[in-house]
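Format notes (please read before filing issues)

Several people have asked whether sequences and structure tokens are stored in separate files. They are not. Every record keeps both together, in the order shown below: the sequence lines, then the token lines. Line labels are part of the format and must not be stripped during preprocessing.
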Amino acid sequence: MAILVAYDGREHTKKALDYAIEESVVKKTKLYVFSAIISKDQLDRDEEMTQVEKYMDEALALGKDRDCDIQTVLGSGAPAKGILEAAERFGCDTIVVGRATNKSAFDRAVLGSVSDAVVRNAKCVVVIVQ
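Then the structure lines:
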């Protein structure tokens, strides 16, 4: 039994992280914090990696401060695909994702939504934190 939370340092994913940490502590289960590097250009990837390391370290510290059995996981490419693959690899029975409320219907239609893709394709329970 394990929980995976998708986290990218933005406000809506911070809410998801808080929820996932609380659930992990209450259920006494492992928590995996997943983030993906999406840049294709090497210079952009290096800059993105610096940012990802910072917010993943913060997530790890927050979890440990709350006595959570927490581990960070880094993927690359499309976030939804990475989330689903990581959840399966680690045997997670729950995926927690945040949902941005400031996206327009056009943005969701054109760019897609990570939370929507995870809900449609997950083989386990998905919790969307808004």
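For reference, the curators noted about this record: The radius of gyration is 14 Å. The helical segments are 11-27, 42-65, 79-89, 105-111, 114-121.
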